[in-house]
Amino acid sequence: MVADKDARMGIGALLTNGSRYRHPRPSRHLAAFDFQVESDLRSVSGHDGHLHVHVADLLAQYRSTHQRVLVFLDQQFGGELPAAEIHADICKRLTADGWSRDRFEAIVFDPEIEIWMWQDRDNATFDSLIGFGQRPTDALRYHSVRDWLRHQPAASPLWPDGQPKPPDPKQALEWTMRRCQTPLSSTTFANAAEILGDKGCTDASYQSFNATMVRWFGPSSGWVAP
After folding, report:
1. Is 13 a domain residue?
2. Which candidate, 69, 77, 117, 218, has a CA 20 to 30 Å from the CA of 149?
């Protein structure tokens, strides 16, 4: 379950048909699992805060139809609670509503879903996706988006030296695509998910997602697709 269409496109692309999701470590590829976007991926008609507060009610109908569920939401949705606190509260709510702990996991993007797109290395495929090839003339001297953001603006860079990712990943993405005159849409998130599945990500929430998928569907999980 996700909170909006951007997350739906990204997560849907990552999980479609159980074969697109490839663990970054080849030795830990997953067993096949049945996943269909239309029937298995629900987005709430609200926002991340709504999903947080009403998660038990929203998932109640799936307790008898689905073996496992994942809940994805942003840490920054107005309440500004720490990601760990949001995660713990969702777990508490679902457990109280009858979900056993081994059947669900909450993935909290800290601060927002855009954090999964950025990597602490140059990625020409991702740079191309967000329009770096159409960057303005004054940016032609930069060889990557990361290099560009570490110099823009000069007084307060969008991606400071020494940080693995931009501190405000959404602002960095929107600024880059606006300067490159590239439209940002839900399709951007879907295409980025394909890149992420191949290249991996060091973000804590993505690593939690990886660990959950390996625990549920990995070589030693004993999973057999129904």
Report:
1. yes
2. 77
Q: If 0-12 CB within 10 Å is exposed, 13-18 middle and 19+ buried, where does residue 95 land?
A: middle
Which run of H or of E encompasses 134?
none
Whether residue 126 is contained in a domain is answered as: no
Judge if 142 and 198 occupy the same domain: no
Residues 84 and 195 in one domain: yes
Length of the chain: 226
Nearest Cα to 51, choosing from 89, 11, 95? Answer: 89
* 214: pLDDT strictly greater than 90: no
Task: Note the pLDDT of residue 23.
Answer: 52
Whether pLDDT at 221 is above 80: no
The mean pLDDT value for 57-74 works out to: 96
The H or E element containing residue 127 is helix 124-129
Same domain, 63 and 172: no
- When the pLDDT of each residue in the chain is averaged and rounded to a whole number, the result is 87
Domain hosting residue 26, numbered range: 5-117+185-217
Per-residue pLDDT at 28: 56
Q: Is residue 32 part of a domain?
A: yes
